[in-house]
Design brief:
dioxygenase activity, dioxygenase, Phytanoyl-CoA dioxygenase family protein
Length: 289
């Protein structure tokens, strides 16, 4: 599925954009389903098991920041977990055996979509090896003005950076530490129906949406089947095996020499990355004052 040039780019940069994975009809269905979720958010006043809301959300003007675990809430989202073209991309990188983890739909509505602070996914869920990636399905055209995903090239080959504040895991890096050169970040842009694939250790974030266009990115987390979570899987082996998206499971984790920093102790209040990062920004601001 991937060309040799695309595989080299993924290895060197830590991310790629692959065009034309979903058909226009598939994209249109995802938009229709998502619009209905936003409409139902009028009856929601605070974050819940499905929604993260923008601070400016009201019943008259529903503003959704994230739909959590969308694959559990509608079959149109769930179908992408084993979409043959998405799986083929991952198999080009890791081989035949692919396991799903979870999903989220990050939404940046026109003119007010919030930023996501710089972080590494690896900081949240270290495994026995780092053949893990997030696949982002572009439901809209991703352009520099509407807050696309930003990646610091080559950062996936470096250390796992500190994602703690005041001794507790908060899910974001402190820019004041100058861990990487953020000015070198590149935007992952493309047309609706394309996908992004970014390495689990890549430093990434996104800017606010300052345009008059929507920016909805449906993110699926995948891993090679022989990558096992270091913090375990409380739901048990049967549930873990049910996450296989292609190929065969294995009881032999592959161990790799990769940097690890555990996400412990957890935040005082467990919430989404947005909620934790909002608290982090307050702490950084107070510290700067």
């Amino acid at each position: 599925m991937l060309t040799d040039a695309q595989k080299r780019e993924y290895d060197e940069v830590g991310a790629i954009v692959v065009p034309d994975i979903l058909s226009p009809e598939e994209v249109a269905e995802l938009r229709r389903v998502t619009d209905s979720f936003v409409e139902r958010a009028r009856d929601v006043s605070t974050h819940d098991a499905i929604y993260d809301l923008e601070d400016s959300h009201t019943p008259a003007m529903p503003r959704v920041r994230r739909i959590k675990a969308p694959h559990l809430h509608h079959p149109a989202y769930a179908a992408l977990v084993r979409h043959p073209r998405i799986i083929a991309v991952l198999q080009s990188l890791w081989g035949p055996d692919i396991r799903f983890d979870t999903a989220k739909l990050n939404m940046k509505s026109a003119g007010f979509g919030a930023a996501v602070e710089w972080h590494q996914d690896w900081a949240f869920y270290p495994h026995t090896n780092d053949d893990l990636a997030a696949v982002g399905v572009m439901m809209d055209d991703m352009e520099p003005e509407n807050g696309p995903l930003l990646i610091v090239p080559g950062s996936h080959k470096g250390p796992v950076f500190d994602h703690h504040a005041e001794g507790r895991f908060c899910g974001a890096m402190d820019p004041a530490n100058h861990d990487v050169d953020y000015a070198k970040a590149v935007a992952l842009t493309g047309k609706a129906g394309s996908i992004t694939v970014h390495h689990v250790r890549a430093v990434h974030g996104s800017a606010p949406n300052t345009s008059n266009k929507e920016r909805r990115l449906l993110l699926f987390q995948f891993r090679a089947a022989d990558a096992w979570p270091l913090l375990g899987f409380p739901e048990g082996i049967e549930a873990y095996d049910a996450l296989m998206a292609a190929g065969r499971s294995s009881l032999s984790p592959r161990l790799a020499d990769v940097p690890v920093r555990l996400p412990l102790p957890p935040a005082d209040k467990q919430g989404s990355i947005y909620e934790n990062q909002k608290g982090l920004k307050r702490k950084f601001f107070e510290a700067a004052e």
